[in-house]
Amino acid sequence: MQIEEFTLERIQSLYENLVEFNLSDSGVHPYSLKELLTPDQLLGLHEVELGYGWTNGGVELRDTIARLYKGRDRDNVMVTNGSAEANFILVMTLLEPGDELVLFVPNYLQIRGWAKALGVTVKEIVLREELGWLPDLDEVRAAVTSKTRMISLCNPNNPTGSLLPRQTMDALVDIAREHGVYLHADEIYKGSELDTEETVSFADLYEKAVVTAGLSKAMALPGLRLGWLTGPAKEIYGTWQRKDYTSITTGALSEHIANIVLQPAKRAEILARSRHLLRENRALLTSWIEAHNNLFSYLPPRAGGMAFVRYNRDINSSVLVDRVREQKSVMLVPGDVYGLDGYVRIGIGAQKHHLEAGLERLADFMRG
What we know:
Order of helices and strands: HEHHHEHEHEHEHEEEHHHEEHEEEH
Strand order of the largest sheet: 2-8-7-6-5-3-4
Oligomer: single chain
Strand content: 15-25%
Number of strands: 13
Number of helices: 13
Largest sheet: 7 strands, mixed
Shape: globular
Helix content: 25-40%
């Protein structure tokens, strides 16, 4: 099997731990266990048995996750090792060679790479800055054919931070329902909306929606490596068949902690912390861009832990990112890993002083 390099993950894996200021992350500064749990809950970790558990996720945890969605129960939930495994087994379950996948880009491109490797035809709907990084619905309608098996998108979007309006979500559901295709939504940033209430899940809007989500981004707990799929029971059972071939099960400690943090009050507390930090950092980034408006411009993100920033310099984005890393020890993500040169992705989920210092070094480089 031939599979394209997942360039985003490769460059982050190579360099993000070697720089002083890592602004390549798209999540929120993570908790420590001491910050996250009460003393009694910390003591309770001592009693957790480190066995295999349920291979599709513990019953209590799947019940907890199901309550995040309308009319769902444990049979609609598969617990995975991060949302990356959720995406992986989703593709393995729903797509076959010769199928067509309609994919919104820019996006986290794990699904594209794996689908292509399986012999799936990927048809891309390009989100454009002049449309607010939102899809042209006429382009979506034209892309869906009798061979289309699934429409896939990320909402809120990585890397732009755009957020689909409810009327757009409804229109996409109408398109999917008309053709009887699956609608996959990566909702890992759901809950990090900065100007509105938490957006509705596609799982609440469409009977053939399959949602991937987890604790890594808006929930600021990437080290737990805990994700999930929510969708129709038959298809979720199919993903269980595939998970038997991947990781078998998730970690006992991660599942135990996940069941604590996904209780309504605790989840609300965590998301409030995330939104507070992201709003402060978005304001900082906006002021910084205004002060350097001859060098940078952007549409402020409406959700998520990153911003997609256009730069005004005649240099390839990967070359730019390499030089900034080598000369200033600052890590960014180049836009051309998304197929959009001329942009960089800047993480805004870091601690404020970290972001501020990293941006100052970036400005020094661009002025040099």
